[in-house]
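Figure 6 in text form: structure in, sequence out.
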């Protein structure tokens, strides 16, 4: 996942997510069978970044 900006905050509802760059994160699994949807929370204090007008 790329959160787009280094000053944005992101939260995941999965364990084992690792940061791979200033704005990028990776979660990997083998033989994964989902038990629920992937949920992420992205927060920024810049309304334009989130698409609000």
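Output sequence:
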């Amino acid at each position: 996942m790329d959160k787009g900006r280094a000053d944005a905050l992101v939260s995941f509802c999965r364990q084992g997510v690792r940061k791979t760059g200033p704005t990028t994160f990776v979660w990997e699994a083998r033989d994964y069978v989902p038990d629920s949807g992937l949920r992420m929370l992205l927060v920024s204090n810049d309304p334009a970044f989130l698409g609000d007008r």
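Caption detail: Strands lie at 9-12, 18-19, 25-26, 40-43.
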